[in-house]
Design goal:
six-stranded mixed sheet; 13 strands; 43% helix; single chain; 4 domains
């Protein structure tokens, strides 16, 4: 990939991140559509680029003003005057009593005595749980994200409750062990005073999570990290790493019960958060510093990434082969797999696939729930 193409992709990722920061629903699928759109227009024609990206990102008419301002900032390099915060329009003495309220499109500040409007149209403020499980993360509202976090917290213990294949003696409930029962009976002159039982014990899994925190994963970072944090709460031995252009061990930073605070701290402490990505170099770094100590044949390595790498794909291929030689299984969770149009054609993703045991989507809660059968 040429340096010019890298620059254009990076510019597009920054623009998408800026749109998301203004609460516009821009997902990875939209970014792929935008990248395709740029190949069909004259890049030197500002109006064509402006119109093509607005269509690709599906910007609604009511957000065109925000879109125009961000386009000038990101693509023209002209910092535009930012609109005054919504609460600044209220008199100072009234600001303390303001409340946040969902109006069907966004969350806004209202005064307690302001008449509450009933949202129009078919956009619901909440989603029934079955629908919420199937809804892509990047399309979820703030209230839906909060609901998903609660569901994820309930899902993690189910993933961690893995039973061993081998039956072992138990004093509780279980299947009858006839051989041991007869041996016990011999000690009491042939009377079966007690039946011996055996069952499959719950085994605490060994888990290592490698989470991509580059800009292209912005739309999914919060939910996937919430999933990783919930697993950490359930599996004390789990190790979590964040990577983009460098690898950072974040296990000790993670506070599963304080997601918001942890995310803010990670945004500060992790170098190049929401920036570029060098997946191959980061996996190589993990192998050199942590693999022999943290990974063995009982370990599941779970990678959260879209597989878009700035490095040569061969680097990631070598690193994944070395990791596969030691790990029990490798799961790669790619949010792009949730789009039926997606094909793993990026060099890095193609290079990694031969060494992945399970290549799965991670774009909604339903896709995370499907991991149950792969963790057993």
């Amino acid at each position: 990939m040429s340096a010019a193409t890298h620059g254009l992709v990076g510019q597009l990722a920054r623009f998408a991140a800026a749109l998301r920061a203004q609460s516009l629903r821009v997902g990875l699928g939209d970014e792929l559509d935008a990248a395709t759109a740029l190949t069909l227009v004259d890049l030197l024609d500002r109006a064509e680029v402006h119109r093509a990206l607005r269509i690709a990102f599906k910007v609604p008419p009511e957000a065109w003003e925000i879109y125009d301002r961000l386009f000038e900032e990101v693509w023209d390099g002209k910092p535009a005057p930012r609109p005054q915060p919504e609460h600044a329009a209220w008199p100072r003495e009234q600001r303390a009593s303001l409340q946040w309220q969902w109006d069907g499109q966004r969350v806004r500040l209202v005064a307690p005595d302001e008449e509450r409007e009933t949202p129009e149209g078919d956009t619901p403020s909440t989603s029934p749980e079955p629908m919420l499980r199937r809804k892509p993360f990047e399309q979820c509202s703030r209230s839906e994200i909060a609901a998903l976090e609660r569901l994820i917290a309930r899902l993690a213990p189910r993933l961690a409750a893995r039973r061993a294949r081998r039956l072992v003696p138990t004093r509780g409930h279980g299947s009858v062990d006839l051989r041991r029962s007869f041996r016990l009976a011999l000690k009491s002159d042939g009377d079966f005073l007690r039946l011996a039982r055996r069952s499959r014990p719950i085994v605490e899994p060994r888990l290592v999570v490698l989470a991509d925190t580059s800009g292209s994963m912005d739309a999914y970072q919060r939910m996937l990290l919430a999933f990783a944090f919930a697993l950490r709460r359930t599996i004390p031995a789990a190790e979590i790493f964040a990577f983009n252009t460098a690898l950072v061990r974040i296990t000790r930073i993670v506070q599963p019960a304080q997601l918001q605070r942890t995310l803010r701290q990670l945004g500060t402490d992790v170098v190049d958060w929401s920036g570029g990505t060098r997946i191959g170099a980061c996996v190589e770094d993990f192998n050199a510093r942590y693999r022999d100590r943290l990974v063995n044949r009982h370990t599941t390595v779970m990678v959260f990434s879209d597989g878009l790498d700035h490095d040569d794909g061969a680097v990631l291929g070598r690193a994944m082969r070395a990791l596969r030689d030691r790990a029990g299984r490798i799961l790669w969770l790619n949010p792009l797999l949730g789009d039926p149009r997606y094909r793993p054609e990026a060099d890095a993703m193609r290079a990694a696939l031969p060494y992945i045991d399970h290549f799965r989507p991670a774009h909604n809660l339903e896709s995370l729930e499907s991991l149950l059968r792969f963790m057993a």
